[in-house]
Structures are given as C-alpha cells and as structure tokens.
Amino acid sequence: MEKIVETKLCKSCWSSFSITDQDRNFYDKVSPIFAWKKYNIPDPTFCPDCRQQRRLVFRNERKLYKRMCDASGKPIISIFSPDKPYTVYDQKIRRSDQRDPMDYGQDYDFSKTFFEQCDSLFKNVPQGIQTADSENCDYAVFGTNNKNCYLTSCMSYSENCLYARFIHKSQYCMDCCVAIDSKECYECTDIHDCYNMKFSNNCTWCADSYFLENCIGCTNCFGCTNLVNKKHCFENTQYDPEGYMKKIKEIDLGSSKTLALLKEKITNKTRIVKSLNNENCENCFGDYITNSKNWINVFDCFDLEDSKNCRASWDMKDIYDASFVWFKCDVCYEVSSSEQIHNCLFSSWINLSDSLYTYTCLNSSHLFGCIGLRHKHYCILNKQYTKEEYEILVPKIIEHMKKTGERWEFFSWSISPFGYNETIAMEYFPLSREEATKRWYKRMDKEYPINVPANAQTINAQDFPDKIDDIADDILNKVITCEVTGKPFRVVKPELEFYRKHNLPLPHKHPDQRHIERMQLRNPRKLRDRACAKCWTAIKTTYAPEKPEIVYCESCYHKEIYW
C-alpha cells in the first residue's frame, strides 16, 4: 500500500497531486549514475495529467502536409507543415546513408539553456514521418513493422489496415481504434482476437457479428450486449441458426440509411456496464487494462507490470509516465512514442538504452540531448565523445540545468515542432485558443488548402447511391464532400475493395470526422467516484453520471452476466 509523503500543487494547472513513498523509491531507482555518482531525480512539479500533456505536444498523428523534401526537392508527405523552420527529408533518404545526423553535432554551450540547444538540433537535424521497418506505409505515422497501411497511427506488426489507430498484429482492419490480434474488422473500438466484426466495441474472441458491446466469445450475433460464449443471438435473444439468419435477412445491412439508423439506436440504448473494463488484472488502478499486475493510473494498456501513469502502452515493466510505448520496455521515466527501450529518461524512439533527452533516435545507447541518431553511443547534442569524456561532461550539464531551472522533466513544450492543435494533446486535453495562449502553447492557425485536381469531379456524400453494388469504379477518381464538415476526401482502391467484399456502403464522412466520432464512443480516460447501481458500493469508473449506462461494480456485473 502506497503512503502519501507529500501533496503538491501542479505549476501548470494548479491542481493538487500526491507524491508517495513508492514514487520516491522509483525516482531513486531510475536516477542516473555518472562516474560513480548518482544524480537524483527530484519530485515532479507537474501533475500526472500535465506531464502527459507535455509529452503529447510532441506527437502529431493526424495532420499531414505536402511539402518538398529538403534533400531531393521532390514532393513528400510530412507531419511538418511547409512553413515550419525544420529540415524535412523523405523517409527513405532520412534513414539511408545519404545523411548523417552527426553532421549537425554541436558543442555544449554553457551560456545557453539546454532546451535552447535542443531546439537548434530540432531545427537542423532532418526530420520525417516517424515510421520504421515498414513497407508501403507512406501515409502511416508512428508505426513499426507494418505493410500496406494507409492513414494510420500507432501501428505495429500489422498489414492492410486503413484509417486505424493503436493496432497490433492485425490485418484488414479499417476505421478501428485499439484492435489487437484481429482481422477483417470495421468501425470497431477496443477489440481483442476478433474476426469479421462490424460496429462493435469492447469485445474479445468474437466473430461474424454486428453491433456488439462488451461481449466475449460470441459468434453470429447482432445488437447484443454483455453476452459470453453465445451464438445466433439477436438483440440478446437466443435463436436457432435458421431463425437467426431469417432475422438478419430482414435487415438491409448493405444500406447506408439502415446502418445510420442502427448506429443511432444502438448508441442511445441503455445497458449495464462494468465499472472498469479490465481483464485478467491484479492490483490495477485504471481502465481498459489486460493481463497486467500492479498498475496505477493507467489506461488502454496490456501486458504490464509495476508501473504508473501510463497511456496506450503494452509489454512494459517498471515504467512511470509513459505514452504510446510498447514491446519489451523497462525501467524508464517520462518516455513517449517508443519501442524496446531500457533505462531511459525523457526520451523517445526505438531500441534505446541508458539515454536521456532523445528524440527519434534508434539502436543506440548512452545519449544525452540527441536527435535522430542511429547506431551511436556516448553522444551529447549529436557530437561523439569517448566514454570517459561523456561521463565527465554529462554531470556538468546536469548541474547547469539545475542553475537554469530546467529540472529533470520532459522536453519543454516551447520547443515542440508542432502547434498544440496539431497534436493529440488537443484530443486528450482540449484547450480553447485563449486557454492555450494563457499556458504559452504554440498554435497552428495557418490553413493549407487541400490539393484537389483541377479536372476532378466533385460529388456530395449525400448524393451517393445507397448501396455499394451501385458504386462504379470511377469513384476512385472523384472528390467527395463530407456531409458533416464539407471537407473533401477520396476513396482509395483497397478501401473500395474492402467495402465490396463486406457489402458495406461508402462512408459519407471525412476520415477525420469518423475518427472524432469513434473517439466520442470511448469514455474519457479519467476515473470518477460513483456508486454501484445495484449494491451501492463505492466504485471507480470512467462512465460519467450523465451518461445513459447503468454502472455495476465488478461483483454485481459478474453475477448479472455470468450467473
């Protein structure tokens, strides 16, 4: 049991937060040692939410721009808008031997702050879309080991996915958010080991079904909630196979009008839900956690142990304050957008160890304040040192950072390459223009027109034929106007093939709007105090009181569903 040893006020939002004895034990554990001297990590000055917000202002997942490659002069897709003062390369050139990030190395200048010097590196070292070891994923951001993915983010070991986010070991999933080991799914959120699922949420081991919610091990079901190991159920009523198929044939699931009505009906349906959507967890404090042990304040995570304040991460141990970190990571603090990292602080990217303040570095160790390095060791501000020189200079920089007030916390948001409204910080922590300005966040206010070919035919989404069978191949050459936002968008060939294979109508909304509506289906990742609607025991849940769900504690939920 953690013991609170101090209560502090966040210097950003002024809310109170606690420091516990276990927190301080962890800070001591991750404090780096140079030349046999430990440099202690102090208590944070930001609350957990503001620490996460600070990390997320460095993560642009959805704002893509056309600009020229600064190496080849050819047009490329980039997460950096053309007006930004950064060097941006095509990903293949950036990862090739044509450029060496060490060419931009600089001596440490003790007349400047550390973050000022990092900002100089950010602007000079070539940047690009952050993908690795992927094929035909030019429009995919923050992905590793993927193939044939389009307009996706936070993907790993997946193929042929479109308009999706946080996908792992999945194939042919489209318009999904959080799909693990799943295949052929559409418009789903929080699914694990699912096949051929449509418009479903929070399901595990389910297949060949539509509009399921909180179901486990169900096949050939429609419009059901809270079912376990069932087949041929229609709106929670059991049918024989022939009766079920008769009910399904009565619904025109290939009609966009029918699906729109079904979505509205299902969304507004009152249903019983479990207070926390956790499975196979021990001593976990958070929501949407699977196969984990000893976690506090975590959301959207699985295969974790002994960690705290984490979001959208998996396969980690002994990590505090992580966002979008996965695959064999341990003993890290304040890390983001990373894979296979060990003993790292305030850092990001792939296969790193024993490093501090890194950004887009990979296959390296013992780095301090480095950007974009590959296969390097004992470097400071992208300059090579011997091990002995590194061990002498880093402590001097740490002491300098103490004098300049740059405590041991993540990169200052003032040097983020992005405007606040370009990043997913805006999604998790929405701020008005006035609020963002008050907190000194940068904004991206310049509008870049969407490049629509001059001879392209434009069609309003409302004018689509109702069914996919009536859509001709020439839709691939047309520009579609979103029925909600009026923004133009296109349909790509793999997308059209997916709709035809699954008898799904063309979407009437821009991919960004579809993403927004999917996110609205998910609860805010913030725990609230409530009472179980059945036994009135005090519970923690992410379901807000004003929402229509009937929230049960885990015990009452299991009695209702399993008994």
Helix and strand layout, with pairings?
Layout: E1 4-9, E2 16-20, H1 21-30, E3 33-34, E4 37-38, H2 48-56, E5 65-68, E6 75-78, H3 91-95, H4 114-124, E7 131-132, E8 141-144, E9 153-156, E10 165-168, E11 171-174, E12 177-180, E13 183-186, E14 189-192, E15 195-198, E16 201-204, E17 207-210, E18 219-222, E19 231-234, E20 237-238, H5 241-249, H6 256-267, E21 272-274, E22 279-342, E23 349-353, E24 356-359, E25 361-371, E26 377-380, E27 383-384, H7 387-403, H8 425-428, H9 433-438, E28 457-460, E29 478-481, E30 488-489, H10 493-501, H11 511-521, E31 528-531, E32 538-541, E33 550-552, H12 554-562
Parallel strand pairs: 7-8, 8-9, 9-10, 10-12, 11-13, 12-14, 13-15, 14-16, 15-17, 17-18, 18-19, 21-33, 22-23, 23-25, 24-25, 25-26, 28-29
Antiparallel strand pairs: 1-2, 3-4, 5-6, 19-20, 26-27, 29-30, 31-32
Structure description:
With 563 residues, the protein is α/β, with parallel strands linked by helices. Among the domains are: 1-60 and 100-125 and 281-415, no CATH class; 457-519, no CATH class; 528-562, no CATH class. It is 20% helix and 34% strand. A seven-stranded parallel β-sheet has the order 7-8-9-10-12-14-16. A hairpin with a 2-residue loop joins strand 26 and strand 27. It is globular. The model has no long low-confidence stretch (mean pLDDT 93).
